[in-house]
Amino acid sequence: MKIHLVGGFLGSGKTTAIAVACQHLKQQGLKVGVITNDQGQYLVDSEFLEAEGISSAQVTGGCFCCNYDQLDEQIQLMKAAASPDIIFAESVGSCTDLVATVLKPLLKFRQGEMEMLTLSCFVDARMLLMHVEGKRLPFSKDTSYIWEKQIEEASLIVVNKIDLISAADLPAFKLALAGKYPDRKFLFQNSLELDSVLRWLTALDVKQDSSGIVSLDIDYAKYANGEAELAWLDEQITMETTDGSAPKRALDLVRRFVARLSQSGASIGHVKVMVSANGLQKKLSFTTLATNDASVEELLTSFGAQNLAQLTMNARVQTSPEMLRAMLVKELAHQKQAGDVVVSEQHVSFFKPGFPTPIHRFEVDYKAT
């Protein structure tokens, strides 16, 4: 059994890449599973993977490092139920220090059960370009510290969404990365293209020397503060109409909410939404660097006229939980005031992550035997 730990900041495209990889591996006759991870309980990513027909499990209520026992349990349950050839374990986007708190403990306690254990980190190409050009990232100093540490600890960096970088900027970008991170392996990827994802899978199949993987030197106070500056909001919303406009009203709610966040100046880690109507499920994803309406407009045609639509929403935004919730409440009120729709909410949760307290942390390098 191979286990691939996948890290990377909110909105970097980890889940999309994993889903494309899983579909390909399944076509090759391999059994695959995915373990998703989040601070919240009701995850869009899990619904998305289920809709794609991919076997998945969840580790919720905190990152992998703070819930190592739950991660280990899910691996064992998946192993017992399906004997997967490959498990992708996708950490929450605000998590770092995976080498010391997850990878090394797995090597120590489960080494004989794994054919391979890898760690790769996804990063949005536009964010990385800003970083190498010396520009300020669209998050606070401590939140950006988490982003920087994610890149620092992984030997394999997947520079995702490379299609959003102009061809003219690409040569200088790659040269700057080689100079700034001479000991890192970079893959330049568009996860919507299978050939691109296949290069990632090929790189993962190169066995890593676990004895040379070094634990991060990390300031947990800065790490904790960076997480605490991000607000989490999870909930499910049902829209009911009598004129077939439920999908349109649901998508209008999403569009207005994201626009309100942008206008407020709040940096969006990600807003993920699973829209369900008449048995059809579609995922929307927005970040600070991508809040356009094109994807929303495309979905209107897909759904057609329906009187019932449901949204599962995960929003991770640099603001207070109360402010994040208040902005959504205003948009819910707007839909109700517009009339001809019944709006109901389920599983409402808004909070900021607590202090990260790992179950295990191997600061001294663990040498595999």
Give a verbal description of the structure.
- The protein has 369 residues and is α/β, with parallel strands linked by helices.
- 40% of the residues lie in helices and 24% in strands.
- It has 12 helices and 12 strands.
- It has helices spanning 14-27, 44-51, 68-82, 98-110, 125-132, 141-153, 170-180, 194-204, 220-228, 246-264, 294-303, 321-338; strands spanning 2-8, 32-37, 56-59, 86-90, 116-124, 156-160, 185-189, 231-240, 267-277, 280-286, 308-318, 342-351.
- The strands form 2 sheets. The chain has a 7-stranded parallel beta sheet with strand order 3-2-4-1-5-6-7, sandwiched between helices. Strands 10-9-11-8-12 form a 5-stranded antiparallel beta sheet, sandwiched between helices.
- Helix 2 links the parallel strand 2 (32-37) and strand 3.
- Helix 10 runs antiparallel to helix 12 (321-338).
- The radius of gyration is 20 Å and the shape is globular.
- The mean pLDDT is 94.
